[in-house]
Request: fold
Amino acid sequence: MRPAFISLAPPGFVVTHPMHIHLMDFQVIDRRTLDVSGFDFGVGGTKTPLKLGAALPVAPEESGRKDTIGVAQNSIVTVAGRYSAGSGRYMYHCHILDHEDEGMMRPLSVMPPAVLDIHRKMATMQAAMPLAWPGGPG
Reply:
């Protein structure tokens, strides 16, 4: 699995989020800057797509297996690892408690390939279904 952490911050706001994934040791495989000029912090969305910037070096202390990694503002960090318990429900969060309490703690579901395939097929079928039909609800 290769999750990525993205940190966006308005100009002048400096923060590094210590991001942690429960029950997963991972390695940093890529760290890059992000051009956030297309992001509107007032509405919390993009006006134009974000652009990947330059690759950043992985510090020596960040090499090897970790369970927490620092994610600086306006950057993306991609990690690779395996969940110790295989499929199931997990959590990822920022280790700054105020951030965790304000929404930077999120669930993550890992499904076996066969279940994931069924999930994708059901999502495709639901997307193809009409929202309303003559004489029906809606």
Remarks:
- The first strand starts at residue 4 and ends at 7.
- The helical segments are 97-101, 113-128.
- Residues 1 and 80 are 6 Å apart (CA to CA).
